[in-house]
Amino acid sequence: MIAYRCYLLGEDGHIQNSDVIECATDADALAEAERLLATVECAAIEVWDKARRVGAVGQVRDQGEMSGKKPGSGTDLFSAQS
Predict the structure, then answer these.
(1) Boundaries of domain holding 24
(2) Which of 6, 27, 49, 67 lies most in the core, judged by the most C-beta atoms within 10 Å?
(3) Do the domain assignments include residue 28?
């Protein structure tokens, strides 16, 4: 069994709490996170195996949506010319 860290996120995308689950595979861990999401008050859960992000379940608001900015309204560093 692998110990996975679950980060419970608020609607703003910030970590509200964390939990550890033990599962045999990444798919099992994501399924368990989906079940956990139904029982806790949070918008999403990110699942991590040490420093590797396995995935996420649920949904948080986009940072642009929270700040009132429209997507693409920020500076595009890749198209900026020097």
Answers:
(1) 1-45
(2) 6
(3) yes
Which residues touch 13 (CB under 8 Å, ≥6 apart)?
A: 44, 60, 61, 63, 66
This prediction's pTM: 0.74
- Alpha carbons within 13 A on the beta-carbon side of 28: 9
CA distance 74 to 44: 26
Q: According to the model, what pLDDT value does residue 76 have?
A: 42
Whether 72 is in a domain gets the answer: no
Between 68 and 11, residue with greater pLDDT: 11
Average pLDDT over residues 40-47: 97
